[in-house]
Amino acid sequence: MNKKIIGTVCGIGAAVCYGTNPLGARLYDEGMTPNSVLFWRFGIAWLIITAVMLCRKESLRVNGKEFTALSGLGLLFMASSLTLYMSFTMMDVGVASTILFIYPVITAAIMTLFFKEKLTFPTVAAILLSFVGVLMLYWKGDGCKLSIVGVILVFISALTYAIYIIVMNRAKLNMSSFKINFYVLIYCTLGNVAYSFCTGQPLQIPANAVSWFYVGWLAVVPAILALVMMVYAAKYIGSTPTAIMGALEPLTAVMIGIFLFGEAFTANLAIGIVLIFSSVIIIAISSNKQKQ
Length: 292
Prior knowledge:
This protein has helices spanning about 1-20, 25-30, 35-55, 65-85, 95-100, 105-115, 120-140, 150-170, 175-200, 210-235, 240-245, 250-260, 265-290. It is mainly alpha-helical.
């Protein structure tokens, strides 16, 4: 019973931590660009993970197959993060984070199309619900449409994150989550350096204490803390309850958008959130029944 309580608390905590990602948009008010925000976020998180691994005296050695898988994971996660943070400059952070949460449905669709998993009625229902939900978010209650470029960027973020999850599951990496994220974070950090060089957008140093606070928050809370708590949640209560609790992630993001960024909470937004939540819950419950 104690483990279930701990797992439940960790599942809720992980979802809420991930949901604070939109706080990165605060750094845009300080004049920082998405690539600069992510460089410092991933760079600081990598330093922390490195310190943890040194304390654990964990080996960094990997074989060729593991290195290939880790490289793919790093590039996918970097692409997902960069496109999401770019979308924050074009649309409400709460809406962007809610659209992102269709990644479990995208994952199910990819597994059906490319890995021959059976397409069930719950999967079809979830896909339709998420599609209608996104349409509700796309058309704002005041009659104004969202930025189509912003919506496309979030879809790319959701797609690359879905592929990231699939690669993570199928690669069967026999190593700790710290070691996996050590390599993933290297690619994310260096990837943002390369992006900055190719686009001519120089990396910026946080200009004041407020900027450093938000950079530190992004490195510790939605990255490291969420990762650790997710491991305990999945271990103590299982993947399905943890996935359902993940619905708190976009809800947290929406609340941040409303209370910190002054974003409007419209009827269309409420309906879209409910539909997307419903699609994810259907997928989670359906997956659990198939395993029983």
